[in-house]
Amino acid sequence: MTTEATARTLLGLGSATLGESGGEPLPPRIRAVWGGARLAAPAFPVRCTPGDNLAVHVAVTLAPAGSALVVDVGDVAERGYWGEVLTTAAEARGLAGLVIDGGVRDTAALEAHGFPVFAATVALRGASKVAAGTAGIGTDVAGVRVEAGDWVVGDADGVVVVAAGSLGDVIGRAEARAEKEEGLFGALRRSATTVELLGLDPGPVQGPAARGLAP
């Protein structure tokens, strides 16, 4: 499967289904910074010294076209590690997007560019550009291990990391899950209930309708 076909498949499955099928979800604090942002791309991991984004600037020059920067900034999240300047530079290099466990700014401009960014917060204060970091070397991002070439998928539900070595297995399980859910949707439209279809025990729930499952 080509990179483009893999990206389409992962986007079609979505982060929630992938996260239930062997992908590793990032914490829910990492969200799209503009509505409708979607991303599926090979990861290029970055680690910054807290409060400094020199490693991000270097990563933009090193990351392969089509990849997404996946960045950990340590314990100083409230800085604008990324904005319109870096977005413009990243677009010129053919990068696909950004996932960062830290702050970004210029969010209206990021949306105008259509550049997918998933971040932990929005922050005005800038970062220094002098301290050591790593770019393209595997690192932990928000507690999840990310290696170069793993896949990162982001949408309205959140962000998930799919290890390169398990990509095929995760896609297979996710497709099976999606097919099963399609069957559930059809049954529900024919008046089945989730309690029946999922084999749930309504007994612990107290109320006049719970045991008889009345509408």
How is this structure best described in words?
The chain is α/β, with parallel strands linked by helices and 215 residues long. Helix content is 32%, strand content 23%. The strands form two sheets. Strands 1, 2, 3, 4, 5, 6, 7, 10 and 11 form a nine-stranded mixed sheet that branches. A two-stranded antiparallel ribbon has the order 8-9. α1 (3-19) packs across α5. The longest helix is centred in the last third of the chain and has 23 residues, at 167-189.
Structural class: alpha/beta
Strand content bin: 15-25%
Cα-atom radius of gyration: 20 Å
The dominant shape is elongated
Annotation field: number of helices: 6
Tally of distinct domains: 1
Distance between the termini: 46 Å
At the first level of CATH, the class is Alpha Beta
Largest sheet: 9 strands, mixed
Which range best describes the helical content: under 10%, 10-25%, 25-40%, 40-55%, 55-70% or over 70%?
A: 25-40%
What's the total count of β strands?
Answer: 11
Low-confidence sequence ranges: none
Listing every helix as H and every strand as E from the N terminus to the C terminus, the arrangement reads HEEEHEHEHEEEEEEHH
CATH architecture heading: 3-Layer(bba) Sandwich
Mean pLDDT: 95
